[in-house]
Amino acid sequence: MAEKERQSREQLMQAALDAIPATGEIVYTDWYNNMVASGNVAAISFYRELKKRGLVKASLTTNPDGSISHKIGRVK
Amino acid sequence: MAVAIYFVVRDSDNDNSTIEVWFPETTPMAVLIAGVPAVAALINPLVNGGLKAAGFKVEVDVSGTWGPIAALIADVQEKAEFAMRTVNGFLSRLNLPTFDENFFTVGTGQVDLTDPDVIAFIDFLEDGITVGGGLLAPSSPRGSTEDILDVERATENWGKRRR
Description:
Distance between the termini of chain A: 34 Å
Number of strands of chain B: 8
Order of helices and strands of chain B: EEHEEEHEEE
Shape of chain B: globular
Largest interface: A-B, 18 and 17 residues
Oligomer: heterodimer
Structural class of chain A: alpha+beta
Strand content of chain B: 35-45%
Low-confidence stretches of chain A: none
Low-confidence stretches of chain B: none
């Protein structure tokens, strides 16, 4: 059962990673909404695990209107 | 916009009071940093209190995006505590008072670490934000040697209120 759970976790983590473009960045909210729309809500929680594993990085910048741009991308 | 050098003074009952001395916002940061002990040396002979903390602060008007009116449900005792680990393993904590309880996972005291607004804040704590032509990256109160590495947990925290 533990092995099955581990495989399930890895599959969810891969689904979360696959939803991030191989190059460039995606707005975090767009990635989040894409995961919800594709029925991969459970995989959303693995974003932090992907960061901790060094597979994904985040970048925040301010837009000219003062709003925040929050994007994520794969680590090369 | 102006800059203040401040001193938090405590009395024999351990009550605190803050002294603020204001300066133009054009005052260079290096001058402000050197100015804190200099102004302290001028005030210290005049008072009996002990010094709890000293530093400088800059007030900036952001009322255009975050106004002064609190929501009816706002409560400064309702806090979320973000516990962060620094590069050298020290724990640093940041509390957000009047935290919106909708960001707690239902039935738990845990902040929802999947919510986009929560993740944006956590990614800021861990990676900083590019603003004003530079990277603004939080550290622990220990300063530049203790960059925030990782937010370990974010939990509900009922706290004191101060008036």
